[in-house]
Amino acid sequence: MGLLAGASRQRINQALQNLGKLGILRLSYNRIEVLDLERLAAYGREQI
Q1: Contact (CB, 8 A) for 25 and 33
Q2: For residues 12 and 5, what is the distance between their CA atoms, to the nearest angstrom?
Q3: In terms of Cα–Cα distance, which of 15, 35, 32 is closest to 24?
Q4: d(Cα 45, Cα 48) in Å, to the nearest integer?
């Protein structure tokens, strides 16, 4: 994922953890579940 985004593994992990704390994603072993697609899209637009 980091390679696709052009970011380090650490930065991707930090972003995923943040999205998990916001309730946008649920992270578990070998799995990322999107809980709120609209909020994820809005978050992505804000980061550009």
Answers
A1: yes
A2: 8
A3: 35
A4: 6
SS3 29: coil
Q: What residues make up the domain containing 43?
A: 2-47
What residues contact 25, with CB distance under 8 A and at least 6 apart? 16, 19, 32, 33, 34, 35, 40
The pLDDT tens digits of the residues spanning 1-48 come to 777 788 898 999 999 999 999 999 999 999 999 999 999 999 989 987
The answer to pTM > 0.70 is: yes
Domain count, the chain: 1
